[in-house]
């Protein structure tokens, strides 16, 4: 048992042949966002600029990873409160105070997300570790924030909740591939990282002002207001995705675009299998375990981000496991013969947890164990990166650049 525990803690996600690429990796990004360049960027700089009050705090000694994790906590706290209030029923009314709190904390997270990169450049502490943690948190937040927003606008346990996650995850994934193939993280005038995130905060505060019931009122074409909102998010997502694909075609040509599309096949296949379960599950497991299905897609990001930083070829990783368990062998069997071979809900838990020794009806326990699987990668991957790069996670190199614009 001790040997197994030791192997788990020492497991390496990054192969030795990729260590040199990590050491030489340098982030290259262009952000043309209107909101970022004229509002959010200057605001983040103001928070990092020393003044008579902050001199006592020594703002320049704050480690970049601490800033990133504080921002992540700002999103997780409201999400956990929503999970506590409505552990299994996304249609339950969320209190107005919690909606306001979630919206404010989301905007605070945005500021921390902008601060960490500026702090890294200011102190000369930029590294693949900081970028890995930053983008890894952002990837997870795409799903977490989508689920929190779904609860606040009354989507309930339905495909609307999962589809809102798709609106953010697809452009995020394509942007990651854009950087993978072009070596530049390019963000246009209007993008999801700035304008998209800000719109989420606006929806929270608007919901608090109008009340949850506003989203359940009938709108045009016989649809409710929340459905119209999802359509709007879908339109923005499709536009952003096509814009990124067109840019890759312009920069790298058609052959690179074909490789990119090929490498998205497993990502979209995961979403296809989950969509299939929503549509054809014999036991309607999607209406009982909507959060679990949504968490499945979220945990794919950790592999994508690590691959991007290693600059190595795409491999199947967790995608293969998810496909083999969820795909037709169980759900399709149930469609044909009227009953699945194995309880669908149980299979969803097995995807995340190899040995689950708790009551599967206790949903809070399940959610905690799901994040343990992600935490294992975060812990081991972070330690391995620190060893490769010869740096500490929460310690700043004493390289403070005075009077430097950043």
From TrEMBL:
Name the protein family.
Belongs to the CDP-alcohol phosphatidyltransferase class-I family.
GO MF assignments: phosphotransferase activity, for other substituted phosphate groups
Q: Any idea what this protein is called? A: Ethanolaminephosphotransferase
Q: Which domain of life is it from?
A: Eukaryota
The principal location of this protein is: membrane
PROSITE patterns from the xrefs?
CDP_ALCOHOL_P_TRANSF
One Pfam family in the UniProt entry: CDP-OH_P_transf
Keywords, A to Z?
A: Membrane, Transferase, Transmembrane, Transmembrane helix
The record's PANTHER family line, in alphabetical order, gives: BB IN A BOXCAR, ISOFORM C, ETHANOLAMINEPHOSPHOTRANSFERASE
InterPro entries the record matches = CDP-OH_P_trans, CDP-OH_PTrfase_TM_dom, CDP_ALCOHOL_P_TRANSF_CS, CHOPT
Spell out the subcellular localization from the entry.
Answer: Membrane
Q: GO CC annotations?
A: membrane
Ranges annotated as spanning the membrane: 67-88, 94-112, 184-207, 227-246, 267-286
UniProt record, GO biological process: phospholipid biosynthetic process
Keyword field contains Transmembrane helix: yes
